[in-house]
Specification:
The two termini are 26 Å apart. The protein has one domain. The protein is globular. Helix content is 45%, strand content 7%. The protein is built from 8 helices and 5 strands, in the order ααβααβαββαααβ. Bound molecules: zinc ion (ZN).
């Protein structure tokens, strides 16, 4: 996923199944969906959209993964614009790509805003939300960046530090509860503005995977 520390935005591998690492596996998964006719695919996708409605979801949730995979096939067949089946009434089409407008909240939200969960472009910038939300996320982002940027130390700084691996491990430990907070507590605030929300439950730079993140009540 994209990083804040002086890096250009990169795309989520899930969003670009043709190009990124792991795409062969996703192409294999997508084969099942490619055998479906247009109508079946759209009806199935609308059914999933109804199940996703009014909740904030981990991006790794199987419903979300399956839905996003179906979207890539829908996109390739240009089915949203053909209006074969109207989109679930809970959702509005995103301006960027016409897919249902569902934001993907990630750790770089303060820099890149909310991503479109289909095409990965900016769905909305953070500054456009009410001041209370902007303030909360900016405070979160500043805290998270303190740790995330350790993964992007320049080589000379890594050499000066006695034990860069220990610094990375500390950063990772500090970042874990913050990323859980982003997903489980903060991302649902966007349900006030969107019918469903996805949040990126990992951080490649700090080697954080979905299994590392647990809800606050656990
Ligand atoms: Zn889009």
């Amino acid at each position: 996923m994209a990083c804040m520390a002086g890096h250009e935005k990169t795309e989520d591998p899930l969003l670009h199944l043709e190009e990124e690492d792991g795409s062969e596996l996703w192409q294999e998964h997508a084969k099942a969906l490619r055998t479906w006719d247009d109508l079946s695919l759209m009806q199935w996708t609308n059914q999933v959209l109804c199940q996703l409605h009014e909740r904030s979801w981990r991006a790794s949730h199987p419903f979300v993964m399956s839905y996003r995979l179906a979207l890539t096939v829908i996109q390739q067949r240009d089915l949203w614009s053909r209006r074969l089946v109207s989109m679930s009434s809970h959702y509005q089409p995103a301006e960027c790509c016409g897919a249902p407008s569902i934001p993907l909240v990630s750790h770089d939200i303060c820099k890149y805003g909310l991503y479109c969960s289909n095409c990965g472009t900016e769905l909305a910038e953070l500054a456009g939300f009410p001041p209370g939300i902007v303030k909360t996320f900016n405070a979160w982002g500043a805290a998270y960046e303190t740790y995330h940027q350790v993964a992007h130390w320049p080589d000379d700084k890594r050499r000066k530090k006695d034990d860069y691996e220990a610094a990375m491990e500390t950063a990772r430990e500090k970042a874990l509860p913050l990323l859980s907070q982003l997903g489980f507590s903060l991302a649902p605030r966007f349900l006030e503005f969107y019918p469903a929300v996805f949040w990126e439950d990992g951080d490649d730079c700090l080697d954080i995977i979905p299994e590392d993140l647990t809800p606050p009540d656990k």
